[in-house]
Amino acid sequence: MRPRDYRDYLVDLLKNTPGVQRVEVLEGVKQPCALAVSVGGRELRWQVVGQLADGAKHDTPTAAVQDGPPAFTAAPVDGPADAWLAGLIGAAEPVDTERIEVWSAARDKASHGLTVFFHNGERAFVRLF
Known about the structure:
This protein has three helices and six strands.
């Protein structure tokens, strides 16, 4: 899924999430495809970056592939921000998503973000900034 499309998906998902006070697309900031979320007494700013599937071109859409939704673990809003967001995405049961990697759990714990692996070979990198 292309970065702007995935950002818009996240905006819709977050707007319908209990406890989220505000969701806003950020325009005019250094990071393209960015959004801000107010939840649990804090503001989280995310940037979405994409990686095309092997052999895909930017001027043509990648075919959507649907299969089973990803496994996920729900996380509290006051825990690591990337784990919380991954839990929300997983709970939505997106059939285009193969798996979700939470950076704070899989990497050096200093990085906060997630990699969304789609069934069609594309990836979305959602990083906290």
